[in-house]
Amino acid sequence: MTRLVLASGSRWRRQLLDRLGLPYAWASPDIDETPRAGESPQALVHRLALAKASRVADDHPAHLIIGSDQVAVFAGEILGKPGDAAAARAQLARFSGNRVRFLTGLALIDTASGRHRVCHESYDVVFRTLSEAEIATYVARERPLDSAGSFRMEGLGIALFERLEGDDPNTLIGLPLIRLCALLREAGLDPLGDQGS
What we know:
The protein has helices at residues 11-18, 41-57, 85-95, 132-142, 170-173, 177-186; strands at residues 4-7, 24-27, 64-74, 77-79, 99-110, 115-127, 161-166. It is α/β, with parallel strands linked by helices.
């Protein structure tokens, strides 16, 4: 029986969750992702990850619902998805030669017990010094308009970086699998357990 539901329409998050080999369903929640006045990046990703999971939870009794959300933080500013090519080029130009922190919120709701856990992971990216031409070529080739920070780690984005720093590189793609495995085990679903029962 499928007990797991991913509250995300992101194909990248689905590809990450596929790695665990667990059967799951997915649903794309529609929530307002606008930051609240004075909201910290940590509070924002916690709130949005839980809101995504909560939006899907009512339709799935006796399931474990995974919610996740990510933001980029640079110079104290929360940066979301660029939305268009000009904004993506502008974000990458700002990041050139600098460190950017990515925060990924993770929520797991157990609709059988009513319990939930919310946490976040951070991951730092140090960008190479990028030319305007490199930035334009990257944005034109990869079209990272729906990715926080205007790049895709799982694609050509790796060519933008000098180095990466953090505990779990999956965090940068949008689903911290090491922490998720720990939360699933706490909830009684061990990715390495017998899935036949």
